[in-house]
Amino acid sequence: MLQWLSNWLSGRGPSSFDRFKNATLQDTTLMSIDLELTSLNANESEITSFGWVCGRNSSIALETSAYSVVKTKASLGQSPVIHGLIQDNIAKGEKIEDVLTKFTAQLPSKVLVIHNANLDLAVLDAVFRRLNLPAQEVYYIDTLQLALYELKKEHEVVPSNSASLGACLLRAGLPAVPQHNALEDAMAALLLCYAQLASLGLTQQSCLADLSHTKALGKKTLGVVKP
User: Fold this and answer.
1) 97 secondary structure, DSSP code
2) Other Cβ atoms closer than 10 A to 162
3) What 3-state class would DSSP assign to 209?
4) Domain assignments of the chain as residue spans, ordered by start
């Protein structure tokens, strides 16, 4: 298919980032994602589990939730201490290609919500490149960056661990969740995002561009764009 037609059909043409920023919250479907990883080194890390859930108008659509344990031969190192997945769990997991097929099928017309987008998207980009998967352009809101924006207004030096998902939930008065389960963390990040948007004074009629000053909005291409 011609690239321009593909872009037009997918809504990812040259002006798509502007359309994304000018969309109102009430017209935006958010897709919160979380990855559990073997390490925090994006170039070496393997995905051990992947969870996501969608929401709109300050609600969570539980029927959209998905959770996959991912099969990998990579060394788990100390990661089982964090996410609780041991080699037996991983051996029975799904192939990463199958998980990403399900993930990319959900992407059209969604804005991702991620706590620490730099890490998760860097890992996904590396996987897309390694597997030579078709490139995907994604737009996102980073709840970690929103937290840092607020914290920097109160502290010259941001306190250690104050922007972790657990600390952010506590500060927002939201219930604690058993962290490091990919689906539960994705749900928690979506709830946190709603609370952060409300704290910033945004309403359902507000545009995503109203977040631009926080530097929490972004776009990234996963994989290599082929001519």
Assistant:
1) H
2) 15
3) helix
4) 16-222
Asked if 187 and 53 touch (Cβ cutoff 8 Å), the reply is yes
Residue the block writes with tokens 């995905």: 47
Residues 6+ apart with CB under 8 A from 32: 52, 53, 54, 55, 112, 113, 114, 186, 187, 189, 190, 193
Side chain identity at residue 51, one-letter code: G
Dihedral of alpha carbons 150, 154, 156, 161, sign: negative
Residue-wise pLDDT for 17-57, tens only, equals: 778 888 999 999 999 999 998 888 888 888 999 999 999 99
Cβ atoms < 10 Å from Cβ of 109:
12
At 87-113, the pLDDT tens digits run: 667 777 899 999 999 999 999 999 999
- Cα–Cα distance measured from residue 47 to residue 55, given in angstroms and rounded to the nearest whole number: 24
Q: Please give the backbone phi and psi of residue 182, each rounded to the nearest 5 degrees, phi first.
A: -60, -40
Cα 43 to Cα 22, 83, 170, 192, distances in angstroms: 33, 20, 32, 28
Are 89 and 76 a contacting pair, CB within 8 Å? no
Nearest one of 10, 79, 77, 18 to 49, comparing CA atoms? 79
Residue whose token pair is 């945004």:
202
Fold of 16-222: Nucleotidyltransferase; domain 5 (3.30.420)
Return the structure tokens found at 74. Answer: 């990579």
